[in-house]
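Sat 14:20. Reprocessing the chain from the morning session after the first attempt stalled halfway. Input below, unchanged.
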Amino acid sequence: MSEQVVCDICGSSTPRSASYHLPTRHVVISEAYWRSAFQLVVGMMSGLGRDERAQAGVFDELISQSGNSGTPWLVCEECSEWFVFDRPGAREHARRGTAPEGSGPVDPSGFAPFAAAAWEHVVGRWPASVQQPAVIDTCDFCAKKIYQGELCGRIGTEAAEAHLASGVLQTPPLSPPRPAQQGWLSCLICTSRVQARVDRARGDR
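Finished this time. Tokens:
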């Protein structure tokens, strides 16, 4: 196997020994991944003068293509911040060139709302082909809308203080801590970024 490989997310060259193998199901529930993918494609289509109807067709096509991937996704260190996963295990799979458990295609109905939320962020509207759930909250770190059924996390007050001191968190929360949670609500984008940086600081690459 070649040691120098290409990240399936950003297309950059990266050492295999510094990469991760993720199953499709871990990739497609990441709104951060979808934001990046849609920004690239919508930017290209806008440059070509494609209208909104053509852009909407791209949404359905992209989620179908991504969900059908039956092989592991090779992810570089930088892009790994977009996902929550077992970092040591995924790193070992990348080194060996093996597929992690659960690899294979995923039914788009199971992740379409995550992609739709990213589409709304990039394009400014929810795609008509996906039913829009109710907004139940917002992230205390980035103000992202959190929809019903969406994954999210919690960062306690002591942990947030430590993360700010170490640079894991680059900006403080947008609001005072929530008494019931003894901390702050964190969307999956912010949660995965913080977890990746904490693991990296501990050496769990």
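Residues 4 and 185 are 38 Å apart (CA to CA).
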